[in-house]
Amino acid sequence: MKIYTITPGFDERIIDRIKAFFDCGHELLQLRDKYADMDETCRFIETVKKVSSGYDQAKLILNFSNNFELNGEPLVDLFELAGIQQSTAKNSDFGDFCPSGKFNILSCHSEKDIKLAKDAGFSAATLSPVYYTLSHPEQTKVL
Q1: pTM for this structure?
Q2: N or C: which end of the chain has fewer CB atoms below 10 A?
């Protein structure tokens, strides 16, 4: 995996940028909007699924900060997504949120988080911030 991009929100105005991302041959796109409700989440996933269906390499990851289930069915299964990304800030008991065979990624913001990802058996971890960022103003130490 060379580039792992995260959507800035569920805004259909970025669909052309998503197409360009996949046109360049990139694979992994995280669908994230920390404030979206279930209807908005499902509509955006459906839209991006239509766009990404024309790209064999496209893999969609749902950020766990969004709703995870619809009527008891995990969105990762309902929409046949490649996996989920979870955050230690949102969850301390990870349970079986992600079916086996799918990406199960943990957002890490400290050495402790990295150890947690390894010990809990996540398939991957992201590490941030590498540089100071406005998205995590509370984090004064970059990693």
Answers
A1: 0.84
A2: N
